[in-house]
Design goal:
By secondary structure, this protein is of the alpha/beta class. It contains 14 helices and 12 strands. It has 2 domains: 244 residues, Aspartate Aminotransferase, domain 2 (3-Layer(aba) Sandwich); 118 residues, Aspartate Aminotransferase, domain 1 (Alpha-Beta Complex). α4 packs antiparallel against α12, α6 packs across α8 and α6 crosses α11.
């Protein structure tokens, strides 16, 4: 490396020293998960008003690392992702280092082969033997791409003429579906008011009888049902809609059937738990976020399609001769099937991680996360001050703080105060949400490094927070 300029070598050495120091700190069980630093101070430190020297940049990098949320720490339970992926990180570094784009095989030959192999493997796991797809920047984009494909199937001229003169298209989702479905309806011109929310049962699953009734009602009112979005792993309760029943209804009425498997899609790697997605093979499209239950760095999402030719139909456009030159490489130029033109290499980090873990390694990790979720649920059930509010089917544990002698009307307030006290004291970081009118703490067991001792410590901290809140 002697030929590398000193002005490059020295900052890189310093940077990787900072990376190693950060990783050592992140893994400490005593580490504060969310450092307390005000917005005003952050704005002052990270101002672009003055140019910075190399020494100043080094200080700012360290300040950034010191100020960020420690998502790699075992006590980060806040989102549907957690942990640090060594080979995912290496993949991200190589991606930035090589700085390629995924539009043509000529530009990114190795990454193209990797992406196609991953898409093929994941399609087969869903149940699409000849399926295909593309990497997208998140589950929300995957859901939107699926709705756009469905729109094209039912109103193909909309690509050229818009939706003028087309009967109103109506989509159906559950009450607990991700909000991105509503955004997708807005983005592809369907309109949020043309999305019908189907009630869920006590467990949080879409009620299929109500779905069928809603489809019939829409048809009787002169509108065109076209899309049903099921959820495999809802955001709050981690619930799986009955895909076989929904798939049967979609076949009956000839509707596009999409599965939002952003959270739960990775369970297809587990022979023990994949029955939660029974019927996925009946769907037309499937969103899957590997940055969640597979631990890849953000973002790492695929949108999969049973009949992938539709991606070419909705995305190919004229005026691209400057970029796509060789007819022979048409099937390898992934820009032809992507909403984007320039697109970063997201496949490498997942490919390296999958090469390291293999199917069996991922299965072992996912099964262990399920065991930890059951362990956490049992801790809640054994507590006199906590109440479990969901049937724990995957990695979501939703519970409420309900101490004896306290009115039920105060449970929501006490629960959020307990959660906020954990945050304010730098302890475990966990989120909260509503299940109907009940405010709950939502604990997620998604970190491959998580152990039962971490959960024991988490609930010890919850108990201390309860004592503090009740005495205040």
């Amino acid at each position: 490396m002697e030929h590398i300029r000193q002005d490059i070598r020295k900052p890189l050495n310093q940077f990787f020293d900072s990376v190693l120091s950060y990783l050592e700190q992140v893994q400490l069980e005593t580490e504060i998960i969310k450092p307390a630093i005000s917005q005003e101070k952050l704005e002052r430190i990270f101002s672009l008003d003055e140019p910075g020297s190399a020494a100043n940049i080094k200080r700012l990098i360290n300040q950034y690392l010191a100020s960020t949320v420690r998502t790699g720490n075992p006590y980060f339970f806040n989102q549907l992702f957690s942990g640090f992926s060594l080979y995912g990180f290496i993949g991200e570094v190589i991606t930035a280092l090589t700085n390629s784009s995924m539009y043509t095989f000529e530009m990114s030959p190795v990454a193209t082969i990797m992406e196609k192999e991953l898409i093929s493997k994941m399609s087969k796991l869903v149940g699409y033997p000849t399926g295909g797809g593309t990497f997208v920047p998140g589950g929300s984009n995957g859901n939107m791409l699926a709705m756009l494909a469905a729109r094209h199937r039912f109103a193909p001229q909309s690509k050229w003429k818009g939706l003028f003169g087309v009967s109103p298209l109506v989509a159906f989702i559950s009450e607990d579906a991700h909000y991105s479905m509503l955004k997708a309806a807005s983005q592809v011109g369907i309109g949020i008011k043309n999305v019908k929310k189907i009630p869920v049962n006590e467990q949080g699953q879409m009620i299929t009888e109500d779905l069928e009734d809603a489809i019939i009602d829409v048809k009787n009112n002169g509108k065109l049902p076209f899309f049903v979005g099921a959820t495999s792993g809802t955001t709050v309760r981690g619930v799986f809609d009955p895909l076989e029943e929904i798939g049967s209804i979609c076949r009956k009425f000839d509707l596009w059937f999409h599965v939002d498997g952003s959270w739960g899609g990775s369970i297809l790697l587990s022979s023990v738990h994949r029955d939660l997605l029974a019927g996925a093979e009946l769907s037309d499209s499937f969103s899957w976020c590997a940055h969640k239950m597979m631990g890849a760095p953000l973002m790492c999402t695929v949108a999969l399609f049973k009949k992938p030719d539709i991606l070419m139909e909705i995305n190919q456009i004229s005026g691209t001769d400057y970029l796509f030159h060789d007819e022979q490489d048409a099937q390898l130029d992934l820009g032809n099937i992507s909403l984007q033109c320039g697109r970063r290499v997201d496949a490498l980090k997942l490919w390296l991680s999958w090469k390291y873990y293999g199917d069996k390694g991922y299965e072992k990790n996912i099964d262990r996360l399920f065991s930890l979720a059951r362990y956490a649920a049992k801790k809640v059930e054994q507590s006199a001050d906590l109440r479990l509010l969901n049937d724990v089917k995957s990695l979501n544990i939703c519970f409420q703080v309900c101490p004896k002698g306290i009115s039920a009307d105060a449970y929501n307030d006490i629960t959020v105060r307990v959660r906020n006290h954990l945050m304010e004291t730098g302890g475990p970081m966990v989120n909260y949400a509503y299940i109907k009118s009940d405010l709950v703490i939502r604990l997620i067991t998604a970190n491959f490094e998580l152990r039962e001792t971490h959960l024991d410590q988490f609930f010890d901290q919850v108990n201390k927070a309860i004592d503090f809140v009740l005495k205040k």
